[in-house]
Amino acid sequence: MNKALTQVISRIQELINRQEVIEAWLQKQSQQPRQALTDAVTQRQHLAELELLVNRLHPADIALLLESVPPEQRTLIWNHVEQKSAGAVLLEASDPIRQQLIRQSHSDDLSAVARHLENDEIADLVHDLPKEIIPDLLSSLPGEDRDAVRSALSFPEHCVGAWMEFDITAVTQHMSLDNVLSKLRDQGELPDNTGYIMVTDEAGSLTGMLTLEDLLIHQGQLSVAEVMSPVGIYFQTRDQAEDAARSFERYELIIAPVVNSHNKLVGVLRVSALMDLMDKLAQQKMLVQAGLSNEENLFDPISRSARNRWPWIALNLLIVFIASQIIDQFEQVISQTVALAALLPITANIGGNAGNQVVALVIRGLATQQLAPDNRLQLVRKELSVALLNGALWGTITGFLTLLLYQNINLGFVMLLAMFCTMLFAACIGVGIPILLKALGQDPALGSSVIITGTTDTLGFFIFLGLAAMIL
Amino acid sequence: MNKALTQVISRIQELINRQEVIEAWLQKQSQQPRQALTDAVTQRQHLAELELLVNRLHPADIALLLESVPPEQRTLIWNHVEQKSAGAVLLEASDPIRQQLIRQSHSDDLSAVARHLENDEIADLVHDLPKEIIPDLLSSLPGEDRDAVRSALSFPEHCVGAWMEFDITAVTQHMSLDNVLSKLRDQGELPDNTGYIMVTDEAGSLTGMLTLEDLLIHQGQLSVAEVMSPVGIYFQTRDQAEDAARSFERYELIIAPVVNSHNKLVGVLRVSALMDLMDKLAQQKMLVQAGLSNEENLFDPISRSARNRWPWIALNLLIVFIASQIIDQFEQVISQTVALAALLPITANIGGNAGNQVVALVIRGLATQQLAPDNRLQLVRKELSVALLNGALWGTITGFLTLLLYQNINLGFVMLLAMFCTMLFAACIGVGIPILLKALGQDPALGSSVIITGTTDTLGFFIFLGLAAMIL
User: Where, if anywhere, are coiled coils annotated (chains A, B) (predicted)?
Assistant: First the structure.
């Protein structure tokens, strides 16, 4: 199965990399006079093959393909995606790619594409669509659907409301199971099968959940209220989507009802939407930690990518210039013992990496909620103990190596002490910075690698040269 | 709902932090003569409350609680977990915690705990159980179950086989829907409802899937084969579990059949198991990148934590000593212009962080499969262009700052050039190292922050001092 997919994708890659295919397409676009007939025939065959292959793929695979080719070829592929799957492709693509594809599409095409989508999908897409097509698009929906889309639009992305689906199968609790069955038979199929039907009272408030098994194994005369399960875990539209995702993971949920602030059933959360969210968050964390805006894509335009890295480079430069000025203060000591300049990076560098190890642990602990306000002090104590132990050990090793290299006992002793102190500081900073960022309402991973290496460098130089000035 | 959970957990934390509760428990353990009667009554009340509260929690929440308290209190809580949920708690806990809890439990208790679990859960746990109880445990299972556990034990953790469940509801394709219905009614309930029933032929080969809706909306005389859906996506026991998880995410699956190499249906994969896997992998990536073994837990014993960090500290020390020896070769130049010692860390540090930005992008691209062999060269071109642009820009800024600080045009020029070259190198290394690690069959994130900062330091110093030696 996977091998077949790989083959289709490499054939597509092969096609779009052919000069003549690109030319044929450009020609078709601009409707210029054709070249020699033989050429044109092969070219059209290639384009037809491309269209066939692309539309044989699942929308998620088309999106992946679009992400992994450069912008020009992306447009070429995008123009061959069928209208009925184009909406799904847009939804699967990452934000910058989606925006690029939308910019390159005609408004009319986009309206047509959107009409193939469900309400919650339209709501997900609407923010990125050109403003001029939205009124038309909304007015083409039936009244109830229009209201649903409008209400979904009002939820910010971190809220459960933005991730829920609102095309749901719900029944009222006074119906008999036979009534439910004939209702289902009329519909023909449940939207997106998960085996659960939500139950409300006459006023639309959530009262329970019915499984399809309940329908199968109980007598038809029974009422829904008699066989339904009580509502277990449910969410409010304003709950944090990330917390909801953690609950899904922890309690192994597949689907959960969502209510508004009046306990009215307004939608359902599905595990597949939350899996996307979790993956997005995990990836963001990695980029954010390295000091990248979470929007950067592998093949973003060069100028955009370059600018995306500026804020952290600038901060980095500021910190390292401060560190540099600290070294400058010790010019006197360095000119007496030039070996100090060579040994300078050692403590700072080891400190930086030791700090990064602690940061990674703390960020993970915060994400999994294992680290909470009550056990912070405990963690500080543990990390300080580890740093004392490792500082003593690796300080001794480094001091000894220095002694061997420079035959200078005092210099070795300076290294030992500097290493020990820097590792202690690095542990404090490593625990402190993510917790501080979190307390400030920021992502605890935000630029941590720049901040940690910057801080340990500055302190590391100061400690090492300060000790050298005192001892040598 | 979440607030209630938080309250229960803080009350438990409060109880286990009381000295008298711990003492009462220790006394109960050692069955020493009681203290004054009044004391004993309160103490027993506290312990009873603790037991009540702990067992009111979901096993996943108990596991989280155990992870976030220090070892002594962990034992206290663990001893109050009811036998019927203890197995689920062990399965939810991380590897080191699970191993600790098992070490502290009696063999008899563990056997009793295991008997509350399903076959695939026993298989997950068996590796960590004491060897002496396994034969007894296996022989207490019915013959068929025993074989299932044995076969599950043979799959390595990265395989689909290790993550599948094998207590599945399957029917043969010649059965009528009425037969299926009465079979289900006899069972009373499907294990872990997802709305799907797997279909096999007489020989046990997978031939399709039946939804519960199919049962509800079709006539009972029809045969399963007439209404079932064809098998869409399925996995083999030896497939990579990570790939399976990506497919679940991409195609929004909830459940998928697993077959052995003879196409016999042997189990199912569920989205909840794979969500755990994805989360585990995302967290591992973060730790591995910082140079931590993925096993380290927030509250591991100090000596274990300290040792866990040694390999990368050692590598780091080796690299930075090499960098230091490079600086040492330029002693002459530094003693002439001591300012060089102060400026030394700047290029290396900026290069390191720029490299880390690229690494984060590349690791993400490899994980999402957006980066494949066909578009690597493209990425190298893009990243080199970004580095050219940013190198020129930030080189000029740094050169100008140096000029301002030291009133030395040549020194400013050295900084500009050094910055430019180091950023170019950092981009190459940032793209190259994760791809190389992946090609070597390693995790592309493995220790990347140590490797990148080490390499950019070494090169950064060499470039900066080399240019200084030529120009100054």
Answer: none
